[in-house]
Amino acid sequence: MVITKNIVLTGFMGTGKSEVGRVLAEKLSFDFLDSDAEIEKRENMSITQIFTNYGERKFRDIEADIIRELSEKEKVVISTGGGVVLRQSNMLNLRKKGIVVCLTASAETILQRVKDTDDRPLLKGDDPLGRIRELLEYRTPFYGDADITINTENKTPEEIASEIIEKLRHRNF
Prior knowledge:
This protein is of the alpha/beta class. It has one domain (6-168): P-loop containing nucleotide triphosphate hydrolases (Rossmann fold), CATH 3.40.50.300. The protein contains 8 helices and 5 strands, in the order E-H-E-H-H-H-E-H-E-H-H-E-H. It has a 5-stranded parallel beta sheet with strand order 2-3-1-4-5. The longest helix is centred in the middle third of the chain and has 16 residues, at 56-71. The N and C termini lie close together (10 Å).
């Protein structure tokens, strides 16, 4: 089976979307696109700076514009920001030419993976684990709308990419 649709990686921050996306794109001979990196390139500032200077709503508007553009491309693996699933228009655009794969991990694993980075504006504060749990609880129904869900606990990006390809081969997309 030849995979002809785009592969869209969704999931909470720290679930491995960017790392897995690069490996998956290489295995499929697709291009890799990271929506957060595209936002930073276009706006000439970091995601954190956008949140600080303009707020989350403005960030989500910029993100929606980028998602609309990336969704039109072909033969790409798109790594999305963790909150992209919150806007139905984003998901409708991504599904036009794509298969949505959600990557998951426990709140504790996510904290371990992101705790040493300063570029997670939604985790600023005294209780990042509590904030992760709160956001996961709210977003889980949105993440659950994926075509395929993969738990990334204790797996390498290569193992996860191979698992995605295997699941794609057993489904009619």
